[in-house]
Design brief:
- There is one protein chain.
- The protein is mainly α.
- The protein has one domain.
- It has 4 helices and no strands.
- The longest helix is centred in the C-terminal third of the chain and has 25 residues.
- It is extended, with a radius of gyration of 20 Å.
- The mean pLDDT is 77.
Length: 81
């Protein structure tokens, strides 16, 4: 069952997404960018941060629901998010 699900999910992957190639241009600012990535790596590798993932998911779901059921109908379909 898991293999079938994995095959089905891979069929929905758009080839353009797999070809994404990004670079960070930071003339004379490379140490600043490198330090920012190092700090992010330290934050995300912390074991206490794991519980925050669920909080971020719940906040994102709440904002999506609020946008679809409160903001859009009251503004005639326009959304500010």
């Amino acid at each position: 069952m898991k293999k079938i699900l994995a095959i089905i999910l891979t069929l929905f992957i758009v080839p353009e997404v797999l070809a994404l190639d990004m670079e960070y241009y930071a003339p004379n600012g490379l140490p600043t960018v490198a330090e920012a990535f190092q700090r992010m790596a330290l934050i995300f590798s912390d074991g206490d941060y794991f519980s925050a993932y669920g909080i971020f998911v719940m906040v994102g779901m709440f904002l999506a629901i609020a946008n679809n059921y409160v903001v859009k109908p009251s503004s005639g379909g326009a959304s500010s998010l």
